[in-house]
Each structure stands twice: as structure tokens, then as C-alpha cells.
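cron nightly-structures :: item 1 of 1
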Amino acid sequence: MTEQPTQRARSYEELKAAISEGYPRMSPQLQRIARFALENPHDLALGTVATLARATEVQPSSMIRFANALGFSGFSQMQQVFQGHLVERSGSYRERIERIRRGARASEPRGAGVLHQFVGDAVGELSRMEENVRAEDIKAAVRLLAGASQIHVLAQRRAFPVACYLGYALNQLELPVRLHDGLGGMLHEFSRTIGRGEVLLAASFRNYSPDVIATAASCGERGAKVIAITDSTLSPLKPLADVCFELGDDSGQPFRSLVAPLCLAQALVLSAGHHLAAAPASPPKRGAAAHRRGRLTNGKA
């Protein structure tokens, strides 16, 4: 990374933004530290230079250079930002759950604790998502969805079930929604008319789908709004999105879960249902639409 920011970050959100902005210019060693820092902020808050260097397989001096590249005079000054985030977000309840989860995995006989392991991992995944997703982003996404002339939902590979649920549930709200599945290799042809006044709701996780990224970029260039569901601030979807949900990177897991993205999808649908129910209904849609919105706002998605 050849340039230092003119002003160092004073909050964790500012630091995340600085890392994301500077990431393309970083050396491979600093990029490795950057990804580790964003995926494991609690480790950065509590670890020493030596232990973190071992965890990221770099020299301790690289940790210092990483802090300097972000405008900090030293590693400890940068670490204070991570420590402030830990104090704000950590809770004894979550920590107890994590200890129980680790203890359960260690004490279970081989093969007998698979379900417990997945449940425990899901609890941790949801906890990370709760830390990363902001209420104002949900409100902003709901406003875009409710005001769109057409909603387009796109995801591929393991993210595709998320798109299927969103297409189904938003349709139950009688919102104009279309699921793009790329059948027959026709994704480009079906999406090239998406433009101003419309919304693309796209989901993609590491390893990111090139077709989803390219479609989000082209739709944004034509004036469509883009809502992204992804894993990290380093995701290629983030700079393309008007609203971006970063759920946390679980790419290190052998079986990557959909618990968090599906939970977010349900939250978006339910929030949209509340928004529509509170808004004045147009006369032609007061019947079936109001009934369906009422079902969803009562929790019957």
C-alpha cells in the first residue's frame, strides 16, 4: 500500500471502510492481514503482534506496516479501535454460548455431535450477523423494495436458495418481483433491460459468482438500485451496491451455512410487510394485498 490515509480511523466502521478502500493497493501479506482483521475483529482486539503474525503467517513487522498503512503510528494505536468495538459489541451471554459450544464439541463422541456442532456454529453465525447488520440498512433496503417498479432477485450456487425464498415471499406481498435463474444461459439477455426505477436484489458469497457481479455492475450503470447480500466488506458486490449487508465470512468452514442469509431474508420480507401495511393502500389492492400483508406482518410468511 503506497499511500497513507490523510486521517486515521477513529471508529471500527471507519476502520472497516479504510481497509476496504485500501485493500486493492496492499501487498499480498497486508491483504492477508486485512482479511483476517475483518473476519476476526475480536482476535485483533485481544492478540499480541506475535500471536497475530503467527495466525496470519506473516512476519511481526508486517503487522506494524499494516497499522502504519492505515494511518496509525503503531499497532497498539490501531488495536485500540478493535478493542473499542469489542467493548461495545461483546456480551457475556454470547461468550457463555461460545464456551458451551466449544465444550460440547470437545466432549461429544466422534459422529454423535454433528447436529450440536451445526447448531452451535449457527448460533455464532447469527451473533456475527447481528453485529454486522445495521437497522438503518434494513430500513433503506425496504424503502427501495417498496418503491420499485420491478424487483429482480439474483443469486447462484449456494446462495440460490436465498433468492428463491426472497422471490416467493416478496411475491406474497404482491410486490412486482422476478427471479432470475439464468436458465439456458440467458441471464445476460433477461437482465440487460433492468434500469432506472427498478431494484436488483443480489446475493453472492466467496467464491463470488462472476455472473452475479457482472449483472450488478451493469444494472447499476443503467440506473437501477442494487441491494447486496454478501459476506465481507471486501466483497466485489459492496462497491456496486446502494445498500450492502455484510454477514461475516464463513469461508473457512468445511460446510458453509445459509442460516444467516436466510434469517436476513426473512427480516427483510417481514420489515417490508410492516412497511406496506403502514402505508396507505391504493384502492385496487385493498383486498387480497391487504390480506396477504396482514398474514406476513402476523408472522405467517
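cron nightly-structures :: done
The longest strand covers residues 150-155.
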